[in-house]
Amino acid sequence: MKYRRLGRSGLQVSELSLGTMNFGGPTDDKESIDTIDKALDHGINLLDRRIENEIVPMCRPYDLGIMSWSPLAQGVLAGRYRDKKNIPDGSRGSQKSIYAERITDAGIEAAQQIDALSRQKDIPLPCA
After folding, report:
1. Domain tally, the chain
2. Which of 7, 43, 71, 86 would be 1's cystine partner, CB 3.0–4.6 Å?
């Protein structure tokens, strides 16, 4: 396993991370623990989970950083989706309803505004 330094923290984290968003919900405790054990056995030491409401207030007084999950709104802000009713086959939005329900008219409108501004700077969105 290859590792990289995490910012200026001095921590070494695996280049691969284990996504744990479904742990404790659709994925039961035994399967979740077994999956984490296998990841650790293979040298993976970085877990990824969607942020909980109490995380940000807890991090502020300790001056802890937070790594963003899906900073481009799962492709919406990259211009991948133009219409929430016509989600491209093979895209993340077409594969699971949890992704499709996050593709909103407001997000698409924001992406179109970002696209217009980026084109003025001659920096088009990657998927536009």
Report:
1. 2
2. 43
